[in-house]
């Protein structure tokens, strides 16, 4: 076998993805599929992010923050952020908004390249034998698995890829060549292993993370360039440290942890047994959601429908367990309606739908609850037991008894309400944490007192200096 460039393939694939992203921020990426020339631009992602940010009470892409999208705020070598952008989810929603001309219709090309790298990355990162979460490429490589076709097609597309700078000149970027080399390496390796009788290969194991961690550990207890004997003694030290640390599964330090746990237990139980209700004589002002543009209203309705589907999926898994009568009450048979456009766009394989499509009545109910919660949450979020306050409010304001069959008891109503409340409490906490850490800018017309407080805390504690990086040109 030739010198194998695919060693540590999975890890390299991560780095290449990050490099592609960093180049895409300052340059456009041109490529051809089936003889059609296309252009991907970072600007399209910014448009998508802005359209999403306008929705007042929920997000289509809740994971994206300024640190994923806004060039000045991007941590350049953070692999995870790059991978979250090059994802099926971002690609699907970008494609959908482009098809509706809500963002530049040319964003369809960018969506295509995001999906391209998502698939390619998955195909070099498979760690399961079976398909998990519909990720068909994150599986083991076998003789007739779908990876081989993907790699062949990808090589064709990669050979047409070029980065073009703002002056229209092509810039040569080694990452694209490296991608090709890695894929060819995987092709060679899987063939060679097959000849040796190895039927299945998990690409993720070709990764030197654990080795690097070990050497990092050795250096941290010994010196930076260990000799064989220093290596041995450092290894022994690490082994011993590991055995006495409380994280080690084989460690016998029950007395130790028990002592710690007792104090923690006291801390929590004291607070729980004598809950001192702080005197809260007043609520903060209620928020009125300002009128939105038609497009935002449209996206918001679609996202509410999507969330309703997510809630059905969740309660079905935990409670309904595919009870046909219940699902008939809350799901829709007609999945082609316009209300489901976002759900359809988000399916991994449109031919094999795996998401739940809420019946219009259930969707409307969830949407009303969401509006109700987000309206009152800013004014009462400082109260203790906020979760049960909100659940009680939902149960008394809305009739959830129509949502289940007689076989399932009333506790299901509580669970549905709890599911929605959990989701939106979590969403609110995330939003406020992001404002506190500067990952999200506050909206110019923001009136929510807690968000305003969080913002002024961030402005007081953040470094005043605005960094001027090389990506500021975009
Ligand atoms: Zn039932």
From TrEMBL:
Domain Transposable element P transposase-like RNase H C-terminal: 206-236
Cross-referenced InterPro entries: TNP-like_GBD, TNP-like_RNaseH_C
Domain Transposable element P transposase-like GTP-binding insertion: 19-126
Protein name: Transposable element P transposase
Species in which this protein is naturally found: Macrosiphum euphorbiae
